[in-house]
Amino acid sequence: MLRYSTGVHNLEGGTQLKVEDVNDTVPPASGDYARGIVTFATDQAGKSYWWSGFAYDLDAAAADIWRMKASQVAGLVDFTTDGHSIKRSQQAQAYLSMASFYQQRSASEGVQTAKIVRDDL
């Protein structure tokens, strides 16, 4: 067994990600941190591992950004001039719609724990 899946995406790699067995920290040879997969240099013979580190919910971050953008344009007003009707208030609503879209994609509820799962079975 060389490859293990953490079950969590968008992991922070480097020294922030620790993979441990019952004895000590075992550094993986490589990691696909976007997909949450760590790969070892040698066969681990089905040993159990725990990982600790940070994972980021990029969809929740995008939702927060869209809400911030909406707050910046919330004061814009609609107006009509020279036969043209400008609906600036629609901009804030469009930003809030995007925030809702990304919030629905988000799986984040704050701090989470996850079980590492062998994906070769």
Keywords:
single chain, 121 residues, alpha+beta, 2 domains, 2 helices, 27% helix, 19% strand, rod-shaped
Chain-wise SSE layout:
Elements: E1 3-5, E2 18-20, E3 30-32, E4 37-39, E5 50-52, H1 58-73, E6 79-81, E7 84-86, H2 89-105, E8 117-118
Q: Brief overview, please?
A:
By secondary structure, the protein is an alpha+beta fold. 27% of the residues lie in helices and 19% in strands. It is built from two helices and eight strands.
Distance between the terminal alpha carbons, to the nearest Å? 10 Å
Number of helices: 2
Structure class:
alpha+beta
Shape: rod-shaped
Question: Helix share of residues?
Answer: 25-40%
Mean of pLDDT: 82
Q: What share of the residues does DSSP label as strand, in percent?
A: 15-25%
**How many strands in all?**
8
Can you tell me the residue ranges where pLDDT is under 50 for at least 5 consecutive residues? none
The structural domain count equals 2
Across the major sheet, the strand order is: 3-4-1-8
The Cα radius of gyration reads 22 Å
H/E series, N to C? EEEEEHEEHE
Largest sheet: 4 strands, antiparallel
